[in-house]
Design a protein that fits this description.
Blueprint lengths: L7 E3 L5 E3 L10 H9 L16 H15 L5 H8 L5 H4 L4 H7 L1 H17 L8 H21 L5 H8 L4 H4 L9 H19 L2
Antiparallel strand pairs: 1-2
Helix pairs in contact: 1-10, 2-3, 2-7, 2-10, 3-10, 7-8
Length: 199
């Protein structure tokens, strides 16, 4: 008799998250923040004393989204912070690997994203304009990361991610911090946005 492969992961919170059929009830922000703070962007191929984590990236994307969309609904800022939340269990694959893996990765990401959104009071699927605006902020962050810590020239980054608006870039810099510091910053930002949303 063939044993069914395990498709769930035990979280530090004690939750057991089914990766194939994730329930919003099994998602905790502490698990997301902890996981993302220890997942390295760029497969860890970045300069600096610390890996650049997905949690740090997510905080920056939310800031860029807010700059590019002044007055945006606070729910959408929360969605920007959570845009890579599924990576707390499936990791951060660089785009070439995602292409090689095929559509299965995208479907897994979609299911997890929907569960995360529902857990925190967002629609399972974001409005297309909001999703596009978050993706645009994500590309600005990727450009900054590429030129500041991932060894790209500005010309290369322009080709792969598009040239960002200089007004959006003003004062932005990539921060490298220890995982536990980033975890606390992510939790703090999430708490602030949740609190704003309930005003």
């Amino acid at each position: 008799m063939t044993k069914t492969p395990r498709a769930w992961q035990r979280m530090l919170s004690g939750r057991r998250l089914d990766l194939l059929d994730p329930s919003p009830l099994d998602i905790e922000i502490e698990d997301i923040a902890h996981g993302l703070a220890f997942v390295a962007r760029w497969n860890g191929q970045t300069a600096g004393e610390w890996a650049y984590s997905v949690a740090e990236h997510s905080i920056l994307v939310e800031e860029i989204f807010a700059r590019r969309n002044p007055g945006a609904d606070r729910r959408w800022r929360l969605a920007a912070l959570l845009h890579d939340a599924p990576e707390y269990v499936i990791g951060d694959m660089i785009s070439p690997v995602k292409s090689a893996v095929g559509p299965g990765y995208g479907e897994l990401d979609r299911r997890l994203t929907s569960a995360v959104h529902l857990r925190f009071g967002l629609p399972a699927t974001l409005p297309p304009k909001v999703k596009a605006a978050i993706k645009a902020a994500d590309r600005v962050s990727a450009w900054l990361e590429a030129v500041q810590i991932a060894g790209f020239t500005e010309r290369e980054a322009d080709r792969h991610f598009g040239r960002p608006d200089q007004n959006v870039l003003n004062g932005l810099a990539i921060r490298l911090r220890p995982p536990l510091v980033v975890r606390a910053a992510y939790l703090s930002r999430h708490s602030a946005l949740m609190s704003m949303a309930s005003d």
